[in-house]
Amino acid sequence: MSVRFTILVEPFRGASFLELLIFSIILTLALGITKVVYNVFFHPLAPIPGPKLYAISPLPISWSRAQGRSPYKFAELHEKYGPIVRVGPDEVSCAGPTSFKDLYGPRYGKGGPLTRDSRATPLKEKFGAVGMFQAGVQEHARIRRQLNPAFSEKASREQEPLVMGYIDSMIRKLRDASARGDVVDIEKYTMWTTFDIQGDLVFGKDVFECIEKEQYHPWIKISMAYFTSGVYTHALNDISSWALWVWQKFLIPKSFADAQDYHLRTTLDLVDKRMASKKTDHPDYMSFITSESKAGEVLTKEQMYANAQMLVTAGSETVATASATTLFLLLTHPEAMERVKREIRSTFKSEQDITAASVINLPYLLAGIDESMRVWPPVATSFNPRLMSSGCYAVDGYFIPEGSIIGIHNHAIGRLERYFKDAKKFVPERWLGDERYANDSRETFQPFSSGPLNCLGLTMGRMETRVILAKLVYNFDIELVPECRNWLESQKNYIAWHKPPLMVKLTPVQRL
């Protein structure tokens, strides 16, 4: 036994249990108070504005995440404290006009793009490869090059018949429901349609059959549950890696563990079948990945395992949310809806005229979609915040040290008067040159993120949203059920918005 250790323990040899207990409590309190004082006054992030309670502990923001209230909380904090806010002992939220460039941009000459925080993401061992959302900067760039052929202009043109086919199926089902006099949950129909589209594009056939059966496939329900699980994982990891380990090891309900196993097995099976089939009777993502990729850059089966869920959910849930939310905001703003009706119904002589190319010629509808994504962005929070992995970096005049987590939250940005006049109002005219909104900070509007890690499928997503809304408004007069007028305010957010039913009455448009 070392002399130093002997000297250290000598005073405690004759101590009673009660004395040792009291000493332990005092020591714990002293260490806690020291940590609190350090976090509030001496931590490198101490100069950044924010509530002191959030500087002391990750519990407040983790509690907001667990409640599904984090977008509202981030918006509240930024409204009170400004464009940069300390939201945890080691976490910062940004909503400044230069944030996207500074944090999500290529950062030439500054060490390259910041990497995503992947501390609590699924491990590589699960699939044998890393997914795009979990990949580091270089690995992300490599995966993106492998996927790029599936999202080219050529691919979008050749995939358009598939997209149109599912949207037309949705319209037919809605006509049938209208003929029966049903009031329908239009949010479900947009979700079913976009998941069917992405399921076919990823797996080569109509694997979900949501529109056909007018119900969710179990794979989709479990995928959405993963979002909620991801938020709890994030919240627990912020509090303590031990808390996360205990949760994952002992506290995950058996029903959820069984669902995860089913989901994993189904994903592997669907990928295996698609890759074994080699060809399909229509172009899907894999068609272009295998035929257009450079030598050595074709996705392996393990990489497809790791990225399949991302390709389906990221390309469907966000589009459905944007479509349903835009429709809701138009329905609750009758003048805007009337203008959209006139624009769409005067532009197209028949439904067949509504195509990916022709919907670009609907400026008011496009402005309405952009305004909807500003007011209520499908990706409301920083899905994958950035990790300061080395050195430190200045953001809005504050130094962010190594090891800090920093993210940008679209819901907060879009609701700040400092960037958008009448920020909480739905005003499509702001995107059409209305002089009242000439000073809006349009560069802060980045619903698909920006930089080298931005959304790969934004072109396809925008096209689907435009066509879905154009076909709905062309075919139906739509009336919102009064009980759904507070549809937005009742939503919670677990990466994706958890949306209650959006009930509407549909009346087919009568044409001569």
What distinguishing features does this structure have?
single chain, 512 residues, alpha+beta, Cytochrome p450, globular
What does this structure look like?
With 512 residues, the chain is α+β, with helices and mostly antiparallel strands. The chain has one domain (124-508): Cytochrome p450 (Orthogonal Bundle), CATH 1.10.630. The chain contains 20 helices and twelve strands. The protein has helices at residues 3-9, 17-42, 52-56, 59-66, 70-81, 99-104, 137-147, 153-179, 186-203, 210-213, 218-239, 241-251, 254-277, 285-292, 301-314, 317-331, 334-347, 363-375, 410-414, 458-475, and strands at 84-88, 91-94, 115-116, 183-185, 386-387, 393-395, 398-400, 405-408, 476-480, 492-494, 496-498, 503-508. The strands form four sheets. A five-stranded mixed β-sheet has the order 1-2-8-5-3. α4 (59-66) runs antiparallel to α11 and α11 packs across α13. The longest helix has 27 residues, at 153-179. The protein is globular. The mean pLDDT is 86.
